Amino acid sequence: MESLGRFWRTNVKKFGVYEKVLPVQTTPSRKVPDHIIKPDYLTDKKIIVPSVPEIKDVNQIRGMRRSCKLAANILQQLNKFIQPGITTDEIDEFVHNLSIEAGAYPSPLNYNGFPKSVCTSVNNVVLHGIPDLRLLENGDIVNVDITVFFKGFHGDCSKTFLVGDVDDRGLELVGVTEECLNIGIKSCGPGVPFTEIGSKIYKHAKKCGLTVIPSVLGHGIGEYFHGLPEIYHTINTYPGVMKPGMTFTIEPAITHGSEDTVLLEDNWTLLTEDGSRSAQIEHTILITENGAEILTK
Q1: What SS3 state is found at 276?
Q2: What local confidence, expressed as pLDDT, does residue 9 receive?
Q3: In 3-state terms, what secondary structure has residue 279?
Q4: Which pLDDT belongs to residue 217?
Q5: What pTM, to 2 d.p., does this model score?
Q6: Which segments of 82-221 does DSSP mark as H helices, in order?
Q7: Which residues, 6+ apart, have CB-to-CB distance to 291 below 8 Å?
Q8: pLDDT of 152 above 70
Q9: CA-to-CA distance for 97 and 130, rounded, in angstroms?
Q10: Rg of the Cα trace of the chain?
Q11: Which residues, 6 or more positions from 218, have their beta carbon under 8 angstroms from its beta carbon?
Q12: How many other CB atoms sit within 10 Å of the CB of residue 217?
């Protein structure tokens, strides 16, 4: 693995100047105190995930606002924390500790066996990167995907951070990805087909000469981590329309290169097949009577 890692850690000028990465050694999973309430996938309590997109009542929406606000606050604190020379494992520790201090459970931890409290995806890693001991380098981009389980509800958001001085192609990639998310959110509202989100995002990315990675989907969220609807970020035929009270994530992953990806043997880390960088950004939104409210803002 080390020799393969050295092979991959090269500058790729076709898509800009950066270092391709593969996973390296990491640390054990972090501990959660007994007093922290655990999500259903770690307890005997089983949450029934609705078979159709859930329309939440006033109390459920209040719970979603609490969890999403906490997730957003933790994500915001990373702005000053992330810099060249720290490891993604240190990001994991930072997010883990802030979650526990707030009385929340870091949702990714032990979800279907995921070993860490947050996902960190650097450069050519599309998503579900496992925090490890690689030092972040000047010029990297890193997506940090935070979900917390707080008072019975999950709140989910992510951002791609710039590490030091990022080249122009990297800045373009992150900027267009943020634009794609905003365009997707602005397309939302009661009675709007779910297909509109992907259509608008795809068209903007293509206009900018970039590619949407189609295997990355948004999802319904609430007392459950993942549920309906599935949110596609490219042209699709997903059925149904948005209704007030629905909560779901929009989380496009955009790249300079091909839409093709490779899943590593850890069954989590997803890479771009051609080594191009990928950027992602995510919000949890609520459909209202007049449009959409960003819960993780």
Answers
A1: coil
A2: 46
A3: strand
A4: 98
A5: 0.95
A6: 88-101, 168-186, 195-207
A7: 188, 189, 190
A8: yes
A9: 17
A10: 18
A11: 197, 230, 231, 232, 233, 248, 249, 250, 251, 282
A12: 20
